[in-house]
């Protein structure tokens, strides 16, 4: 039913338009071409035609619409096939002054110590294509003919030296061998220093026993020597002197902890060879 009504309305609209067109054609014929031209030359119609014609708003709207249609689409954000991956080859290129300053910071480094990957702004695992791309990008930014920086030539020398290393298979292999040797040496030194630190820490926390001629562990306590000894009889803290040894009980006397004053510090020496209960002096000597 609804479709039939819509079809009827369309037919009526077409009929009205057809009648209007016939009436307009008959009026133009009766008026004549000469009179029609005079009406079109009237001042009001000329202004209307100028507003809507070539010099009017419609022309400007048409031009804007054509420009909008012909404008290229903006690239979407992402890492496509041709996109630069941030961090791999420098990402978005920095300004010429920034890259020149970055390369100038390496100008004083001898060529045999220069890190070419750092100079090119890429990872050490970069492929030949990534290295070439990074070099070309930086060359455009820091070349003396392209950059207005007064020290662009020095920066370009650093860039060229880095490229000479990575572009030559022989020199790159030599650099890789040298880098691996330095890395291995650094790892060995770090391991040695770590073991040495552990040994020194062990020695600092070990004391020689003058009673059994052995070694015992000691643990430094966070106690002030001026108030290191606790007296259960007076419930007061007393100062400790160098070489003093005392015991403190806890857990209703079930746990006995021995302390000693050595080298101006208070240590827990429980587990070592203690002096006799009547002695107040340490029977152990510091290392």
TrEMBL record:
Domain J: 115-179
Annotated region described as Disordered, given as residue ranges: 73-96
Pfam families, alphabetized: DnaJ, Jiv90
UniProt-listed CDD domains: DnaJ (cd06257)
Example of a GO MF term: dopamine receptor binding
Transmembrane segments: none
Domain of life of the organism encoding this protein: Eukaryota
PROSITE patterns, A to Z: DNAJ_2
InterPro entries the UniProt entry points to: DnaJ_domain, J_dom_sf, Jiv, Viral_replicn-host_int_reg
PANTHER family: DNAJ HOMOLOG SUBFAMILY C MEMBER 14
Protein's UniProt name: J domain-containing protein
Organism the protein comes from: Bambusicola thoracicus (Chinese bamboo-partridge)
């Amino acid at each position: 039913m609804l479709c039939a009504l819509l079809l009827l309305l369309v037919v009526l609209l077409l009929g009205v338009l057809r009648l209007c067109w016939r009436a307009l054609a008959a009026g133009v014929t009766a008026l004549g071409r000469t009179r029609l031209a005079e009406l079109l030359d009237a001042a009001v119609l000329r202004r209307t035609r100028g507003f809507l014609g070539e010099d009017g708003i419609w022309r400007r709207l048409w031009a804007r619409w054509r420009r909008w249609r012909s404008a290229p689409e903006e690239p979407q954000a992402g890492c496509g096939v041709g996109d630069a991956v941030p961090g791999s080859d420098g990402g978005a290129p920095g300004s010429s002054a920034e890259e020149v300053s970055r390369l100038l910071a390496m100008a004083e480094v001898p060529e045999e110590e220069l890190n070419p990957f750092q100079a090119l702004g890429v990872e050490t695992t970069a492929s030949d294509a990534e290295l070439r791309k990074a070099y070309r990008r930086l060359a455009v930014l820091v070349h003396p003919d392209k950059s207005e920086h007064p020290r662009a030539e020095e920066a370009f020398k650093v860039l060229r030296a880095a490229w000479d290393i990575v572009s030559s298979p022989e020199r790159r292999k030599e650099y890789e061998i040298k880098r691996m040797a330095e890395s291995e040496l650094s790892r060995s030194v770090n391991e040695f220093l770590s073991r040495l630190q552990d040994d020194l820490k062990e020695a600092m926390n070990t004391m020689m026993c003058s009673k059994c001629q052995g070694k015992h562990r000691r643990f430094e306590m966070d106690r002030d020597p001026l108030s290191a000894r606790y007296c259960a009889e007076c419930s007061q803290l007393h100062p400790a002197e160098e070489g003093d040894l005392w015991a403190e009980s806890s857990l209703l006397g079930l746990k006995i902890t021995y302390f000693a004053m050595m080298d101006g510090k208070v240590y827990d020496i429980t587990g070592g060879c203690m002096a006799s209960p009547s002695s107040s002096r340490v029977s152990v000597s510091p290392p």
